[in-house]
Amino acid sequence: MNKFIVLIAIFGFSNFQCNKDTAIDVSGTIIKLSPLWSSSTTDGNIAESGLIGTTVLFNNGILVGGRQNSSNALLMLDANSGSKKWTWQDYPTTTGFRLFDFPVISGNNLICHELYFNVNIDLGTSKTIWKNAFNGYSYDPLNNFFNGTIYCGNRGNNNNGNKPVGAYKLDMQTGTPQFILPVKIDTTNALASTGYSGDVSCVYPFIYNSDTLISIVVTDPPITGYRFRLTTCLYNLSKKQWVFERSPLFDANNGGVAGKPIVFGNNMYVCSGGKSVCFNMLTGDKRWVNNFTDGSEVSSFLTSSPLLADGKIFVQNENLYLYCLDPNTGATIWRQGIFGTCSQMAYLNGVVYFVCGGDGKLYAIDAANGNKLWAIPSPDVKISSQASFDRYVGLVPPQNGQKGKIVVTTGLNAYCYEAYK
Prior knowledge:
Blueprint: E1 5-7, E2 23-25, E3 30-32, E4 37-40, E5 57-58, E6 61-68, E7 71-78, E8 84-88, E9 104-106, E10 109-113, E11 117-122, E12 128-133, E13 144-146, E14 149-153, E15 155-157, E16 166-170, E17 177-182, E18 196-208, E19 211-224, E20 227-236, E21 241-254, E22 262-264, E23 267-272, E24 275-280, E25 286-290, E26 307-309, E27 312-317, E28 321-325, E29 332-337, E30 346-348, E31 351-355, E32 362-366, E33 372-376, E34 394-396, E35 405-409, E36 413-418
Antiparallel strand pairs: 1-2, 2-3, 4-36, 5-6, 6-7, 7-8, 9-10, 10-11, 11-12, 13-14, 14-16, 15-18, 16-17, 18-19, 19-20, 20-21, 22-23, 23-24, 24-25, 26-27, 27-28, 28-29, 30-31, 31-32, 32-33, 34-35, 35-36
């Protein structure tokens, strides 16, 4: 049944900024909302989607992706007005991934570790402090920042030459990856046709009983199709010895790591191939697995990083649902229908925000019950059907008693909306 759209003008509504351009459908979902500001991010051509995947804030500025002088760019915009503070385009390489998905902020520095390069940018001046390309080698972008150092793993493939598959840390003066230790990869009956020899998907250092430990998630090469096997291991960096070397998480019927794992207490939460698992990092024991086999749906890859907020775990599955899980048991608390591959999620004041790749809309979901609060399309689809919202949501926290802000981009413009609450 088609839903009727109601145009309303409400003043003093407690949960969101509303004006004559606000539209709400009959289910109560806001489907149109005027932005607080908009700002051009392009030279006229639509920018490549996904140039940055998460919120980067500095001195009341927010970083977004764009296109300037026919090339990809990062732009620092004033979070209150949208005016441009600076532009950066000093990429170390023109090939491979250019997505800054999990950048690290250390002081004034923005350190971006990606598959094929590292770069360190001064957020105050936009100057490149250092950059380097890996010349065909690839390191997993699921990095973790610990005691002033970035830790990561590398990917085994036909291009990696003699680089051992294992755990690495960055030389923070140059960005050069430094080898820490190798890991065991199970290549038994692996498909040679994939050219893939396994990788270290996550390296997570932490302190336990005064020792520095490294919890590692390993992806073994596939033995059927492009389905991978996941294991975990734990290394005592202080004592230079393994606590345990292999503890299986998923069998060969599942996919590789999807999104960045999250940690709460001694537990790590990993999404992979239509499943989500919680395991104890100290023992490798699985606490629970959620298979996401609701009724007749066929689960596929979980493509966004899981989110821990409001005492719950939120994961997005390509079977067209957003799930809210109990972090202690993995039980589904609620689910909400969405539209395919989504951006990283952002959380503020009981609301989860993200952009769906299937329909390119900005969504706001009530974290308590899964109710759909927003489903807002890009204003720029009137200009170009390709100008839907990118898979990026920037979050500006509340200030001076005012609500926070949600910033999204379209490849043509950045739009800033007042948060739902």
